[in-house]
Amino acid sequence: MPRPAPLPEGLLTVGRITGCYGIKGWLRVHPYTDRAESLLDFPAWWLGSAEEPRPVVIDAGRRQGRGLVVHLRGIDDRNAAEALRGAEFLVRKAALPPLEHGEYYWHQLEGLEVWCLGEEGEQLLGRVAYLLETGANDVLVVRGSPGSIDDRERLLPYLPGDVVKQIDLEAGRLTVDWYPEA
C-alpha cells in the first residue's frame, strides 16, 4: 500500500471524501478515527492534497453509518461535490485533544524504531511505516531500515502490554516482545 507524501508541518490527514450524499453538495467522508463525530469539533479544516491543502469551512455535518456526511460552504450541488471525491481532510495536529496516559495517535507511532529482545540481545527490526486497522486489533507495519537485522516487512499486532512492551516517543523507540524470524 503506497503511503501519501509527507504533509506540511503541523497538518494531519483525518479523513477522505468517498462520494456525494444527495443533490445539495453534501459529501460522504471516511474518517481515519474511531471517534468520527469528534472530527466535527475541529475549528479549522483543510482539503485537498498534502502538497497544496486549502482551507475550507464545514457549515454542517453529522454521523452517517460508519462515517460522516458534511457540507462545505460554497459547495451547493452534486457536480461540485463529485469533483472533490478522493480529496483528503486535514487538521492541525495542535488541535487534537489530549490523550490519556498510555494512549497514542497513530501519527506519533509512525517512524519509531522497533526493537525486540532476541537471542543476541536487543535487535532492531526496523521502523513503523504505518498502521492498519484490521477489526480485531490494529497492526504495525514495520519495514527494515538502516541498522535493522534485515530488510523484511513485518506485520506486528498492536497489543499494548502483550506484544508492545514500551513506547518512548522522546527516544523514537518502540519495544516489542516478538521473534525476529516471525
From TrEMBL:
Protein localization: Cytoplasm
Notes concerning its domains: The PRC barrel domain binds ribosomal protein uS19.
Pfam family, one: RimM
Name this polypeptide is given: Ribosome maturation factor RimM
Subunit structure: Binds ribosomal protein uS19.
UniProt keyword list: Chaperone, Cytoplasm, Ribosome biogenesis, rRNA processing
Keyword Cell wall biogenesis/degradation part of the UniProt annotation: no
GO cellular component annotations of the record: cytoplasm; ribosome
Its biological purpose: An accessory protein needed during the final step in the assembly of 30S ribosomal subunit, possibly for assembly of the head region. Essential for efficient processing of 16S rRNA. May be needed both before and after RbfA during the maturation of 16S rRNA. It has affinity for free ribosomal 30S subunits but not for 70S ribosomes.
NCBIfam families reported in the protein's UniProt record: 16S_RimM
InterPro entries: PRC_barrel-like_sf, PRC_RimM, RimM, RimM_N, RimM_N_sf, Transl_B-barrel_sf
Domain named RimM N-terminal: residues: 13-94
Domain Ribosome maturation factor RimM PRC barrel positions: 106-178
Record carries keyword Kinase: no
One GO molecular-function entry: ribosome binding
UniProt cross-references to Gene3D superfamilies, sorted A to Z: PRC-barrel domain, RimM
Family: Belongs to the RimM family.
Any one GO BP annotation for this protein: rRNA processing
Transmembrane region(s): none
